[in-house]
Amino acid sequence: MAVSHRSLELPAADTAAADPDRARLHQLGYKQELKRGLSVLSNFALSFSIISVMMGVTITYNTGLRYGGPVSMTLGWFAVTLFNGCVALSMAEICSAYPTSGGLYYWSAKLAGKDWAPLASWVTGWFNIVGQWAATTSIDFSLAQLVQVIVLLGTGGLNGGGYMASKYVVLAIYGAILVIHGLINSLPIQYMAWFGQLGAFWNAAGILVLVILIPAVAKERASARFIFTHFNVDDATGIQDRAYILAVGLLMSQYSVIGYDASAHMTEETKNADWSGPMGILTSVALSSVFGWIYLVALTSLVTDIPSLLDPGNDAGGYAVAQALYTAFHRRFGTGVGGLVCLGIVAIATFLCGCACITSNSRMGYAFSRDRAMPFSHVWYRVNKQEVPFNVVWLSVAVAFVMALTSLGSQVAFQAMVSIATVGQYVAYALPIVFRVTTARRSFVPGPFHLGKYGVLVGWVAVAWVALVTVLFSLPVAYPVAEDNFNYTAVLVGGVLLLSVGTWVLHARFWFQGPITNVDV
Questions:
Q1: H helices present in 101-231, as ranges
Q2: pTM of the prediction?
């Protein structure tokens, strides 16, 4: 067949035909506006960096240690991994069919059926973006707290006259971290690909280093029996029922493997998107689950006295992982500097995780604005000359900072950010899966990656798991319930649901029709 030479400015139809990714995006109703420069490795690296189990395990370790202790963490991890795997498999299957930056809310619109599509898309989108903002807030604020603990231990510890930063100083550190992340995310996508790959490498290499170093340094180590069978009951919580304690303790494992929807949000910038996106989701979850468990076991080998690690009067101010590492190196070498280096490795991983979170937030915000779902969408739905959604990057930074202002009033209320980041995002994960196994059970057209006849079964297991953890993580975390131990998760999740449905009934239902095509399909 003879091929005629044409101008470099190809008509849209010809360009789409020459590029399968552009053609598929065109079929889904969108123009190619973001630069498609990510490989499957870069897509995976971004999700792996956002999941960052080294960060997730470290900052929520106190929760796991207090509620159930070693057994709730080391064995509970397996249960969470199994059911998280079902969620990831279902999401990967849907991602393969609909590789767009909108991800979850676009999927809900396509799977819920014509009558329910706008409402399903609206609620899913708001749960997703609020959950992402909360995740960025919890990660970067946790980094600020970790920096504060490193400074505290480096200057002598709480009992040695060390510097304990005020809540205002911690907030200022947090603000500086957010600004740096905003500046990095204002760079072209090839730089973000590099940061994503660095994050993936740092998480994997950092865990391997710590897993080898921790047992080698520790003079006193917990027995295997203790690590895998010891059940801790903290009398201070007022909870004695073991099943209840175990359920609350699972938050650590559930929070530690979250954020893999980033692979879906980056599909419009990923080559071979309908295959690379699903692979990014699955490989990031699988490797994170393996690396996370190994790291968790290594950390728990340092646990020989749970009450002392959780004591707010210890040198680390009750930060269990920091105290354990500092003590291990101090006993071996007479100085805790090595422990501070280990905490520095975790801090860098957390920094790279927060940076990747802003990347994912901004792509979700860009897509949601493209469909006019956000206030002032015309402002956020813009890309600069480097094809970066610059305005919505800084919106993500600003919202995350405002969310952290709750820390000035109530640390308990702020801690709920971890829960809403977990529950809110998993609700958003589950909604399109619900529609996949109900309204679209027979009409769903799979992409290159699919689960075949097991798709519906796996989907139902995923939905049941998300429903269960939503209830579990909304339960009181201490009795009697008081102002200083109140679990705000149900309030925040209910608030997002009420606001999204309320704005739909009062306003959005009159104009929001779901994803808006910007090409002639």
A1: 104-111, 117-154, 167-185, 189-217, 224-229
A2: 0.88
